[in-house]
# Entry
Amino acid sequence: QVQLVESGGGLVQAGDSLTLSCVASGRTFSLYGMGWFRQTPGKERAFAAAISWNGGTTDYAASVKGRFTISRDNGKNTVYLQMNSLKAEDTAVYYCAARWGRSVVVTAIPTEYGYWGQGTQVTVSS
# Structure
């Protein structure tokens, strides 16, 4: 089992940058693929980015591609989401998630992830 804690959210202006962090504890972090999802009130949790256990494979939602970068440091048990050129529509609660297994395949499907953090709020003012 792995526990996940996100941080780094906040209130920023459109065009600004923000980096989210998610620290994992419990089982060996490198056993898990990781993902970032986001959710706004009344909507389902939406995929933002994913990364394989060794960082060799990444994937992004079309809405964030070219602006967001997911990365991980297995030595620090941490996955990051660098967000640039933020827009008002990026406002959401951001969740990190862990998917057990050293697969090079990443997935955007929330139900494929067995572990979730508590979320961190990102608000982008226009």
Q: What stands out?
A: The chain has a mean pLDDT of 96. DSSP finds no helices and eleven strands in the chain. The first strand starts at residue 2 and ends at 7.
